[in-house]
Design a protein that fits this description.
The protein has helices at 2-22, 37-47, 67-80, 128-138, 153-163, 176-208, 230-233, 238-262, 264-292, and strands at residues 54-63, 84-103, 106-124, 141-151, 209-217, 221-228. With 293 residues, the protein is of the alpha+beta class.
Length: 293
């Protein structure tokens, strides 16, 4: 009786043993949910630390002995470190300008000016601190300094994730209006994708090359120059004016003589008429006198 019961239990034990040997943990694919997105971003940033994008800027204002020399030295130093000059401007602000008599034939021109310069430089971010530390050595004193740091890693990663293809899209038959709407939507998405790519390129450039703005100024400079007295040079001397006046009078006399010579027929006719009238008057007087006698 007992042996028959044990025989019935043997198949059951064998089946249990087979199930225990064959069964393995089942692995299923679970798509990333919204709660897993921060974890995914954290893993991506941890695996690739070079994706960190930090934009650094620096503004420095200082006084120097010579604006031209200091600007050239700073530009050469930045170029040697792999940077470049984005904008360089020099101004010579005139404080006062006056011209006074110096000698009878010259003037003294005195000008007080205030030279200044504005440099906008692009420096490799790894060498920005070195350039900032060099500037005080070429300056008399520093008026002010501003350093800023902006982390744009999240914005960069957001653009990359939005530009990453989501996968294959199944084709669906649509009518004409829906096709136009889908094409318009596709064009808008392409424009947004290009805009994000351009923004990421700008972020990469600004993160690789920090912006450095340097304002330079120097003490007021007095410039003195001796200039020729142009009004005196353009004025005719007195003796020359007397000579020219006498010459003008002689020319007038010559002109009158020439006019009279050119009018001699009229003068001759006038003389004939004058003497003729005088003679006729004399004869009339003689006749009157004879009548009275």
């Amino acid at each position: 009786m007992h042996s028959s019961k044990l025989l019935w239990l043997l198949p059951l034990v064998f089946l249990c043993a087979c199930e225990a040997g064959v069964s393995e943990p089942e692995t299923r694919y679970q798509p990333a949910s919204a709660s897993n997105v921060p974890e995914i971003i954290q893993q991506s940033t941890t695996q690739d630390s070079m994706r960190e994008k930090v934009i650094r800027t620096a503004d420095i204002s200082c006084h120097v002995e010579d604006v031209v020399t200091a600007s050239a030295n700073i530009e050469h130093a930045v170029a040697a470190m792999g940077g470049h000059v984005e904008d360089s401007r020099m101004n010579n602000n005139v404080v006062s300008d006056k011209t006074v008599p110096y000698k009878p034939d010259s003037l003294r021109h005195v000008q007080v000016c205030h030279p200044s310069a504005m440099l906008k430089l692009r420096v490799p971010s790894a060498k920005l601190d070195s350039v900032v530390n060099i500037l005080p050595s070429v300056a008399i004193y520093v008026d002010g300094r501003n350093l800023s740091r902006e982390d744009v890693t999240l914005r960069y990663l957001t653009n990359e994730m939005l530009n990453t293809p989501a996968g294959k899209v199944s084709k669906v038959r649509v009518n004409g209006q829906e096709a136009l709407a889908m094409n318009r939507y596709t064009d808008e998405q392409k424009e947004k994708r290009v805009a994000r790519e351009i923004e990421n390129l700008d972020i990469e450039h600004r993160a690789a090359f920090s912006s450095l703005t340097v304002s330079l100024s120097q003490p007021e400079v007095v410039r003195v120059r001796v200039l020729p007295e142009t009004e005196g040079l353009m004025t005719t001397p007195f003796y020359m004016r007397c000579y020219m006046a006498s010459r003008t009078g002689i020319e007038i006399i010559k002109g009158v003589i020439l006019v009279l010579l050119s009018m001699w027929p009229l003068l001759l006719i006038g003389l004939v008429i004058f003497f003729g009238l005088k003679r006729m008057k004399r004869r009339k007087l003689q006749k009157d006198f004879q009548r009275q006698a």
